[in-house]
Design brief:
Layout (H helix, E strand, L loop, with lengths): L1 E6 L4 H12 L4 E8 L3 H10 L4 E4 L17 E4 L1 H10 L4 E4 L7 H9 L3 E4 L2 H18 L3 E3 L2 H9 L6 E8 L17 H4 L9 H9 L1 H14 L6 E5 L5 E7 L4 E5 L5 H9 L30 H11 L3 H17 L5 H14 L9 H18 L6
Parallel strand pairs: 1-2, 1-5, 2-3, 3-4, 5-6, 6-7, 8-9
Antiparallel strand pairs: 8-10, 10-11
The protein binds NADPH dihydro-nicotinamide-adenine-dinucleotide phosphate and magnesium ion.
Amino acid sequence: MTQIIVLGATGSVGETAFKVLRHDTERIAVDGLVAHHNFDRLWEMGTTLHARWIGLTDPEAGKHLERTESGTPRVVVGMDAILDEIAQSPAQKVLGAMTGFAGLLPTLTALSHGKDILLANKETLVAAGDLVRKMASDSGSRIIPVDSEHSAIFQCMAMNQPISRILLTCSGGPFRGRQRQDLAFVTVEDALKHPNWNMGAKITIDTATLVNKGLEVIEAHYLFDVPYDQIEVIIHPQSIVHSLVEFVDGATMAQLGWPDMAIPVQVALSWPERWPFPQQPLDLTKQFLTFEPPDTKTFEGLGIAREAGVKGGLYPAVLNAANEEAVSLFLSRHIGFLSITHIIQDVLDEFKDNRIPTTPEEIMDTDHWARNRAWALSHHYQS
Ligand code: NDP
Ligand code: MG
């Protein structure tokens, strides 16, 4: 039976994976589950899924240890201990569903030990795409996308046929149709109201700025080895068509489904097989599907992110770190909505380094620098 480790088990994708894994217990066994500090939920999930171990990356979480004296799962605390656990685990697959750059080291550890990564945690691939790809090809590990658009592209590209374009669909977020001046005073609550998807706070803000779609363009570039000028973004507010691939003969394929992460999680778990999963059938006679070009003037995040991707090297790591920091400052109400992309642009403008990183340390140093610069520059933008 396949064994799996879930990173970010207590998050939005992690909770969806929990439901899918409960359904697939005859095919997949859970070796370990990892979260940051939500011990109670992690323990509950670990006992339900009969995990061998659960891990908390937050060292402060150690105070819960005494509660686990009796029974399983075993509790592991701190990133180093979790990395050891991943390295020694018999699991063949790791679902990367933790949020942000914190996913870098667990992902690299899993890849270097020959485990397949089922990847939701796009920030890791954006920040360290060249390194992640090299590690996967050196160890023979596969990276199977879980991000819904990339899962769609992955399914369309399964026959390995030559393509001319990827069309990444994008809901447009909660502020689609607004003008730039309308965005100056939107609140955290406004930005957290996504029309179609129920997700963690960080990615929900990214979908409001459209930085998420920019990160996904970079993610698609690294996952499918497709040049940036062959990756286009198209707004599709209903989030039913999850993305499209155009082949060299002009034929175009798409994958459709409800906006429910259970589908891409299940596809990644079962790939290359398909396993039954209870879903309400998609009734296209009741759907009105529309498409429009993105408004890149109002939502600068898409263009800023794409440009960082095209520059390559360490620029995507700078983009990701500045964005993570700016989103966190917005969520804590230190800066306004439009300042998120201003800060990212300012930090990218300051960065002058054309190296292609070959070690995790180079990426971590750059990440650290960009976070510091974002934080320092944010003083100019405080709301
Ligand atoms: P959530 O914020 O809902 O969950 C984040 C998870 O990561 C939690 O388990 C959390 O643990 C853990 N975590 C947070 N910070 C750290 C840290 N510093 N170290 C280790 N673990 C940490 O996020 P989502 O589930 O929404 O997103 C997860 C990833 O999947 C992101 O990269 C996102 O871009 C991507 N994604 C999400 C989609 C969605 O539908 N939500 C769709 C496509 C991609 P704890 O609960 O203990 O804090
Ligand atoms: Mg997505």
